[in-house]
């Protein structure tokens, strides 16, 4: 149905039982209409989806900048951070390297703790750090545990009704790159790579394998490499995806490697040998075995004495930045 006075198109969405508004009939701007239970519908405009800068700090000649925007995919306001390396000219464009964080993290942890900006500045690569889940939706139970719900989106598209807004896969793969392309002309989003830590390492591996045409390379620190067979993954997948374990395989790197094995760039993984989660939750050797069987190039580096923390990440982050910079420059 059409609202002539506002020149918006109000579209019913049977899946979410809401209405959406499309501006100038463009499907790219289908936004959920909230506040139905209050005084009428609130109509969100394109302006609310545009990123607003909320902080900026200079570092290694470039800038850490943080932004806020409304996400149509997730149905809530989201933040993300970008490190822009120093620009040699106004016309310079930078390839992008997405970082996916782990359980309990936001977009800020990596930017504040990793020290990745020094190498990114030297290599001329922009760092993109999204948040790890929707926030502020007030879903019952969303904050009851540290390993599920808020801060624990697991980079999947949830299929269970209660968690229908937890669509971090689509947010990272589709919405965020489009948002960056439309609002930051200095970013060359067609040249992209991806990496992450723990839950984010799982996200990076699965997103890369399912989108080999979108990303030039992947790496991970202590990834949850076989989530279908660990407690963290089983809890998340049961609640987000349901009890059919066949559906879980779409978000398990150890299974995906058998289906999407046309990998040209070596997968780099660093794993601390003193990581307390190594044996029960992370299971990198399962992924290593699957890579060998699929003839996929993998460099799994076991690092003696290192744990699961950002001390570990900061120690080896330069190697990962260079790994991706080489792949991005060769593309």
UniProtKB/TrEMBL annotation:
List the molecular function annotations (GO) for this entry.
Answer: carboxylic ester hydrolase activity; S-formylglutathione hydrolase activity
Keyword Glycoprotein attributed = no
Alphabetically, which GO biological process terms does the record hold?
formaldehyde catabolic process
One Gene Ontology cellular component annotation held by this UniProt entry: cytosol
Per UniProt, which keywords does this protein have?
Answer: Cytoplasm, Hydrolase, Serine esterase
Question: Known Pfam families for this protein?
Answer: Esterase
Q: Does the keyword Iron-sulfur apply?
A: no
Q: What does this protein do?
A: Serine hydrolase involved in the detoxification of formaldehyde.
User: What name does this protein carry?
Assistant: S-formylglutathione hydrolase
Organism, scientific name: Crotalaria pallida
Write the lineage as a comma-separated list.
Answer: Eukaryota, Viridiplantae, Streptophyta, Embryophyta, Tracheophyta
